[in-house]
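Hi support team,

I submitted a single chain yesterday and got back a structure, but I'm not sure I'm reading the token output correctly. Could someone confirm the output below corresponds to the sequence I sent? I've pasted both exactly as they appear in my results page.

Thanks,
R.
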Amino acid sequence: MMLLAIFSGILVQILFYLLFKLIQFVFKGIDAIYILVVLSGVSTLVALKIFGFGWPDVLYYALAGTALLVIVCLWWFLRTKSLFSFLTLSFVCIGLGYGIYLLANPGSEPYQNDFPKFSMGKGYQTLKEIGVENPASQGNFQVDAFTYGSGSDKKRTEYAQDVRFITPTVDASLLLPEWTGKKKKWREQFWGFGVTEFPLNGRVYMPQGDGPFPLALVVHGNHSMIDYSDDGYGYLGNLLASRGIITVSIDENFVNGHWSGDFRGKEMPVRAWLLLKHLEQWQQWNNDSAHELSGKVDMENIMLMGHSRGGEAVTIAGGYNRLPVFPDNAKVPFDFNFNIKGIVSIAPTDYRYDRKIVLKDVNYLSLQGSYDSDEASFWGLRPYRRLQFTDSVSRFKAGVYVHHANHGQFNSTWGKSDFGAPMKWLLNLKPLLMAEEQQQVAQVYISAFAESVLKGNDTYLPIFKNSAFAKDWLPDEYVMTHFEGSDFVMLVGFEEDIDITTVSDSISITGHYLNLWKEQGLTTRDKGQQDNNAVILGWNMTDSISTDTKPTYQINSDNLFWRDSVQSVQLSIGSGDPKWLKSESKETVEGGDKNDDTNLEYDFSLVLEDSLGRTATIKISDVKNIIPPLKSKFTKFEFLDKDMIGDPWEVQLQTFHIPISKFGKNASDFDPTAVKHIRFVFDQSPKGVVVVDDIGYNPLK
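Hi R., thanks for writing in. Yes, this is the structure output for that exact sequence:
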């Protein structure tokens, strides 16, 4: 390698010398010093590209080259004062000015969609219409805000002399051996402490009263460590505290990114472990009869919330909570075992830690924005799918996908741009929700989740099944939901094997007159994996198939699908791309291009057939609409999106819960306790492609 470096250096010197001599020969009247200036300028631009600007080459060199050309033309004009040099300079300046205008412009919304934002079947009412209070409205408790921490923070008075309670430091050296080199040197110089004395700092939003109150912790994700992130969740802290829940925003800025280096996910165990150490501190205060916080906390009702890498950290903490030792180093004993009832991951990662955490017996909620440039896919659904319910306690898991929401605005201090300069100048900010609207969605769903999980108030559960029940409290925007209760019985999950005609020994699948029928893994917009298989079904009654013959997909059981009373049939449905019908050999489960017609309204009939051949039918749209693909244009320059982010959209499923009572309204002799066939009949839309997953039912409670 050393010889290669020396050879490369000599080669570069020779090339510069030859280039210098060539310019001297072609432009004989130009002094050598000016040639050197231009060459050094070009070298500087190349160095900046390599070390400072992560822009695509074509954009960077076009703008930087134009700027350098302006300097050259200006020098040329000042020397010659000719009309030609003036016109050349003017033309180049106009080009540079246009480039700067494009960077300064907020962008545009190229994907207009007039499809209804919210939908529900006839006879349904929103929760507001039946008198339910908005979960995002302020509660009856006054809020006492204060901080606790080391009391010796060099940078922030709120964790120095202004703390109400002093906390001990903790030694994280065995969990973060990567605290070395320049990361160690510059961080310790900035913060005044190292990995052996991490502080337990927190911002507390405390309901005034005797308690005990449930406890919720929220932790930020990765951001510049010198642009403190822990103050960005006051909108959640104040709301939850006013509704009787102690909320603490945890400070973990000292493990965030910095110019001296990013731990690249190696710090994820520490992020999770620190949350559990904070819970230990609260337990100690709560059990100390002499402490001001004695008896204030209901330690049987705990919720963890995290944003970005913090969203992955809370799932890791949920996994660590029951372990006896740190799985990456058994020299670190664990003895936590807290009663964590709920986990909320906001625009999370799910790939930083090299272990895939499988949560068990805990309620789970994840939120994601479609215009998240930092985490461009709904990674929170991967732990959603891995989560297991193993006991008889009633729990649920939910996902909320918000169109036009970005990454940063879930934190009130991060702002609209998901990237820092210079990358932020490329982002398309025009389509984004206002920060207040995005945080309003978070408040509604997180508060509703907390009400159910920490207080046993299930009034708000319908909004996780269909966002239309909360439309009076939400901005006028597409909000897709996933929901699965612990009582859900899966019939078909498409994860079994590669035979698409069978599910088990007693359940088979048949299809007729379909243009497209296949099972495969769903991909993310950047060709990653959603870690989920589904069936893709396409039909086109305008082609050679007779319109008298309806395409069908049918699940058949040798026995009865269920023998007890059933509350609802449940399945997940997402829109596919009609271009997949054109050439099945080229079809992939990825987003289509901009010119494809992905705004078709899809609908189909769901038919249940009992053991005597009697049927009951309902249209999917009688419950809610299948939302078309929600496209995003992340950057101002369309050609950059593919390279920087990926496709304009990816398959997003939403859960449909269809009450059995809906079927009985048009088939009085149908027996809903003796169903042997579940059939999709594609008779409501002339053509379409849908992605279907997780077909099952919910028993009657």
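A quick pointer for reading it: The radius of gyration is 29 Å. Let us know if anything else looks off.

Best,
Support desk
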